[in-house]
Design brief:
Layout lengths: L10 E4 L5 H11 L8 H9 L3 E7 L3 E10 L2 E9 L8 H15 L4 E7 L3 H9 L3 E6 L9 E6 L5 H10 L1
Length: 167
């Protein structure tokens, strides 16, 4: 197990190629059809160089995250939590576990894009220390804007978050 989840019934482990079917079920559960990644896209993530893909499991997979690392920068590509399992801290646990893994790989900064209207995701990332870097107009299609968020100085990240949470 990569990271002890705050949810005792959840374990977080590296995803394997044979997890593709379960990942696709999560993708279909987590996003409207127009926003879903294809099986080919997820296969590319699972087989791509510099990727860290973690899967959260209870009795079945309940969440997945993918991040790409290039030198000291990581780009969080995708976070999916099964729709009926949201608001239980699974997304937070997946992001924390992934940040720990890439921090150990020497990553110093993490960047991601998130839909402007996705307030729960934005709140999750901000709680973990991400800051707004920029915005992209029409990034997800006409009228669907994105915020670009960045986590600076990942090497000191756990300590900074602990201090913030104590306040």
């Amino acid at each position: 197990m990569i990271h002890p989840s705050r949810n005792p019934e959840i374990s977080i482990l590296p995803a394997r190629r044979d997890d593709l079917e379960a990942i696709m079920l999560l993708e279909r559960s987590g996003f409207p059809a127009a926003e879903q990644w294809s099986e080919r896209s997820w296969r590319g993530e699972l087989l791509g160089e510099g990727r860290t893909i973690l899967i959260a499991r209870a009795q079945h997979p309940v969440g997945v995250i993918s991040i790409k690392t290039v030198a000291e920068l990581a780009d969080l590509h995708r976070l999916v939590v099964e729709s009926r399992c949201r608001r239980r801290g699974i997304g937070t646990d997946l992001v924390r576990a992934t940040l720990e893994v890439v921090r150990q790989l020497g990553v110093r900064e993490v960047i991601l894009d998130v839909a402007y209207h996705n307030e729960p995701a934005i709140a999750l990332y901000q709680q973990l220390g991400f800051e707004q870097l920029s915005a992209r107009q029409n990034y997800y299609g006409p009228g669907q804007h994105a915020l670009i968020l960045k986590l600076y100085e990942l090497q000191t990240w756990p300590d900074r978050i602990a201090i913030t949470e104590e306040r």
